[in-house]
From TrEMBL, chain A:
Catalyzes the synthesis of non-canonical poly-ubiquitin chains that are linked through 'Lys-63'. This type of poly-ubiquitination does not lead to protein degradation by the proteasome. Mediates transcriptional activation of target genes. Required for postreplication repair of UV-damaged DNA and for adapting root developmental programs to suboptimal availability of iron. Residues 5-151 form the UBC core domain. This is UBC core domain-containing protein. One of its GO terms (biological process) is protein K63-linked ubiquitination. It comes from Sorghum bicolor.
Amino acid sequence: MANSNLPRRIIKETQRLLSEPAPGISASPSEENMRYFNVMILGPAQSPYEGGVFKLELFLPEEYPMAAPKVRFLTKIYHPNIDKLGRICLDILKDKWSPALQIRTVLLSIQALLSAPNPDDPLSDNIAKHWKANEVEAVETAKEWTRLYASGA
Amino acid sequence: MQLAMSSRSPDNLLFFCSVMASAAAAAFCLFSLYRHLVRRRCHVGVAVTAGDSEEEKRRQTLTVASSLQPFMYDRLIRHSGKGASWTECAVCLGVIQVGAMVKLLPACAHIYHVECIDLWLSSHPTCPLCRCRVDHPAEVQETAGQLAQLSPA
């Protein structure tokens, strides 16, 4: 029932995501609700998350594309801009959202955030403090968490 | 000799006229191009004047949205991001068909379906594609008119 009256834009985006997936990213809609996507992002090379497979959930609210998708990490991750509930601090998911952005561009931005943690704009204060005080050690913890929680299970 | 002079002078006159006409045409083209380029510059990051309340900003946005005149799309309309064969509305991801009602944003010349852009502009004063502000009342109408004029009907 939730899938009736699905806007054509969402159908189009879904088709493109499935037919031309972005490298290191997969997103597939749930059968029960086409506005709910199961997402997997591979940890980018040269980042502490390399080798990890991160699961996320993405939901397109009723107002989409006038409002941003809601995205959350389901896999535990040690990152200054992602909190322990998996919520992501990313401007385009909040005040910098634009309807010209798409599911694909949002997921590419999240992938980029994994390559470039920004402890100056933290969501997780403890991790950000750790990152600023001792980046080498924080990166080690991030690698350890990747091995523990994101190793392709 | 007399014969030669009289036969040459209409040629001279013709030559003079055609030179003058070419010069005038070239000057007009250059002037039009200059005006077009000057108008098209993006006004990114214009500071909102201090003391603007949320309500006031919203009112201005609404005014801007309604001040942009919709018109019927045809292939000769000049706008930014024009594809070789078709134009996509970045909001609904649908092709803008000839005859569809559209709006052209004055500062950046991006084009959208009327209903798509009006929905966005009703709460945000920016272009979805380039984030140009569209709430510059002094320039808005004049430029929109000018671009429409430049586009052959």
